[in-house]
Design a protein that fits this description.
110 residues, mainly alpha
Length: 110
Amino acid sequence: MLLKLLGGEHRRFNASALAAMNLEELARCDFILLDASNMTSIEVQEVIAWIRSATLAPLVVLMARELTHEAAALQAGADAVIAFSESLEVSVALCRATIRRSNRYGQRRL
């Protein structure tokens, strides 16, 4: 639902598909929303490091509200963390703000 509200083209990958994804394809992404609901803190850090090896696109992580996991995701390179308990309206606003901050030169507006 969150991706639909953000608009634009989107694609979904599960963790195993993400691992097989070509880094060049990942580098073409304008925005990444990582659902880390079934990942450990270590797995989240590894996936974020792998994503960051290919792109600096805005990266928002969706996860349960656990401060240690949130801190680990941010330290690993996520731009923002959304807790599942956040309202949909707040989640959309946070994603749009993250995209806006990353596009300081005005190439794209949401």
